[in-house]
Amino acid sequence: MKVLQALSTSTGSKILVALTGLAMVGFLVGHLAGNLLALFGPDIYNEYSHALISNPLLVPVEIGLVAILVMHMGTAVRMVLRARQARPTRYAVKKWAGGASRKSVASTSMIVTGVLILLFLISHLWTFKYGAWYTDPTTGYRDLYTLLVEVFRSPFNVVFYVICMLLVGMHLRHGISSAFQSLGLMPRSWTARILRAGAALALILGIGFALIPIYVYFVL
Amino acid sequence: MTLDSKIPSGPLADKWDRHKFESKLVNPANRRRHTIIVVGTGLAGGSAAATLGELGYNVHSFCIQDSPRRAHSIAAQGGINAAKNYQNDGDSVWRLFYDTVKGGDYRSREANVYRLAQMSVNIIDQCVAQGVPFAREYGGQLDNRSFGGAQVSRTFYARGQTGQQLLLGAYQSLMRQVERKTVTMFANREMLDLVVVNGRARGIICRNLLTGAIERHVADAVCLATGGYGTAYYLSTNAVGSNVTAAWRAHKRGACFANPCFTQIHPTCIPVSGDDQSKLTLMSESLRNDGRVWVPKRTGDTRRPGEIPEDERDYYLERKYPSFGNLVPRDVASRNAKSVCDEGRGVGETGLSVYLDFRDAIDRLGRDVVAARYGNLFDMYRKITDEDPYATPMRMYPAIHYTMGGLWVDYNLMSNLPGLHVLGEANFSDHGANRLGASALMQGLADGYFVIPYTLAHYIASTPLEKVTTDHEAFAEAENNVRTRLDRLLAVKGHETPRELHRRLGKVLWDKVGMSRTDAGLREALAEIPKLREEFWQNVSIPGDATHLNKNLEYAGRVADYLEFAELLALDALHRSESCGGHFREESQTPEGEALRDDERFCYVAAWGFNGVGQAPTLHEEPLVFENVKLTQRSYK
Amino acid sequence: MRIHLRIWRQNGPTDQGRFENHTVESVSPDMSFLEMLDTLNETLIRQGQEPVAFDSDCREGICGTCGFLVDGQPHGPDPCTTVCQLHMRRFKDGDHLTLEPWRAKAFPVLRDLVVDRSAFDRIIQAGGYTSVNTGGAPDGNAVPIAKQTAEAAFDSAQCIGCGACVAACKNASAVLFTSAKVTHMALLPQGQVERHTRVLNMVARMDLEGFGPCSNEGECEAVCPKGISLANIATLNREWWKATLLK
Fold first, then answer.
1. Is B212 left (phi over 0), alpha (psi -120 to 50) or beta?
2. What is the pTM for the complete model shown?
């Protein structure tokens, strides 16, 4: 109860969003590393996906991820509503301050990119996790590689995925360093480095994920 | 009426201890039954309200600003003196006492000043405990600098924002008491009258500045800590909201006003640039520690400062006062600036400024050290003037900064009106005719933290205080008085703004009751002020009404009070035909042009009693007795 | 110079409010922004109209009384400058400027450009102090404090409480203000005793007053007249979870 109370304060909420956000960034790093195996051909990729699917820990981890996602979103939405209440009247003219401000298109559109990423996530799971089930005739594993190639034969899907990965990158561009700020892990002497590292990781994740559909469409 | 200063007997160093012991106390359980009104939340009022709250009194604290943190003490830059002798350079309570009495040109009370010097030590400890981030040395000890004509380093500081940090310390203590409900805060309230019941101050009438409501507040004692009256001059370093109203209304109810002519002109302010200017900005006196003051030797030299060779510059303070040089007291520095400008050697477009040059300091110490010491002041200067003090000398001119005069108080900080206590700049007691740098913060906090808790307790414990409520006829009379005056102001419906009338009053005072005063000039001022007052009451324009936030109405009320007060200021200056400290009468000077006191005739406090607007006030003299200090001609050569 | 102003006018807390256009003639470049408004007000008063209400006091950038938005920027376009220290030389002849009050639920508009910032006082009330009574303090030099620590504490302590941070934040958050005090006290040995209760109570009070959560965007730092750094907010966050865990 006390924990819930603490986490419902403005600072607690920020920390919760930061922790869940960073957890998902951790997931994304792993996910990207796995996905990039697609560049090395069907065998390695399917081997990897089979190892995941057949792991008995998969379901608990998935439940955990969903819980994290829900907490992240729920808290974020609550904060947005709270922020709306905090400024009932809008300014007729409002400019960005510039200078030391970290405000960016990314930071102002977190809730928008967040919602779009959620929609993407649903479609993504629909396409792959719950998509067509091909079986690799030699190993008997699920042949996700074939599905992957099939999906990204369509230029529409490629464009859609690339745009969505851009959104992910944008979300993380503000999100990663922001999480460090919220957790208070941003000492003055490290601020510039953390801001740069956060942006770099966001860029790597965004481009990394976008690379796969492009690779499939143009190279294969 | 004789004014009894109630100075305790006995040796100077023992007076306060003995007095504290002899004072009566209020039982801790009874304190909450006593309501104390504290008006003003600056260093004096804020610290007093917080401390009285800590002790358990039921304190009602009032300020005209939207928050107690905004009181003008916040703008004090340089520092606060204390006789800690941390620097081992020969300081002591006695030396601080001696310097202050001498600096005040022997027009203050020995006993008060000695107590102030004693308290100075405790103030620093208290502020450190509150978390005031004073400047430190690398070893972690408190740093000190020499300030304002002192030959020891006894000034504690927090960059150029010492007043801010000390005030926030007091404010935070006050807010802690508000949270504990021992203090009730009334912000956005302007005290417009004092309520006197059976000869004792028992309450105030104030206007809620947001709603216009006229409120009655009753108490067992009233403390005024409402600051000085420098804004009577229109242009001053005071905040635009600083005013004399509360003190003046108390004066009209019988409290004597002492030494109003003792005003301090600060030597280093950014010069006036135009008629629309609303205030002057002080540049801390600490700048004179490293900056050198000069003007061209030749009159009418219009070359840029960099083009004037060394031998054609007149470092007049260093030349005239070799032992103190640029660090002479404020009154001396100001007067000299005026006299070189009067000779036609002033610089800048108006010819009304002198250079304060950091070239040599930058050469000697390097730009970084200078920036570390004065960076924020240089930035402020650049913002206002658009000139870079690292590259070209600053231009400075004196401006009204502080007022040593104020409501008369005895050793207990109580005025001649029983129950009315006056603290900080609002009283007259500790600085004589001239205040030394870094002493105002010291006095405000000494009064609030360490003096009033004892003396007020004694008053309450030793006075039979009958039960009074706000239904008392004295409250009705005072409220009616306030309402009538507001109605009168609104009924004028003239065509001139209060600001313009204030500006004109300011010009009269600055020209004739300013840095240098003459019999003839003061008489002219005394003739002009009533005319201006007349014009005010016939032609002031105050649109809107009194039922909402009406800043112009508030301002007009304050200007109306300045117009009454200014006459007393000029009259006091006229009557004191000696020169002393900040009060310079051209008729009374040494052959070298220094202030010449007349101890035979004027070694007293001039406390004026009110007899009606435009009526001659009654002069009460409180003789000043010096048992420990020998009166000498001040010399800073 | 001639300056065209579009100023928010509102008769009282319950009034709807509207913009009003005014032109100020013969503005001198050496005037401060508020002196320019003084000039406008003098004209209005002479015409028998109610002047524009705006707050100001020290007019040297330290009391924190003044503040409104000049063309969408709290305290106007200059960095580290209160609007009383903003000078007209910053603007051009014929400029059109919009003046608006701070807007936040916790800062209701009282009249024209004047808002009620008493919520800040209540945040300090919740714990922005050391609980030491007057008297009995140990010698000022009893506890040495490293120069760097004292300087860092000062950097945080110089907040003037003007409210520009709240005005600039898209969430109307007061966390820069709150964190400046929390950091100031957390850095100093004197602040250690109440370190945990202070941050918890101040954050709780800040929420109670209706300020929004931090946006981590740093618009607050960019508009702060004293340049109070976002690092203070990181410190507050760290202090807060430490206090929560150790409670």
1. left
2. 0.96
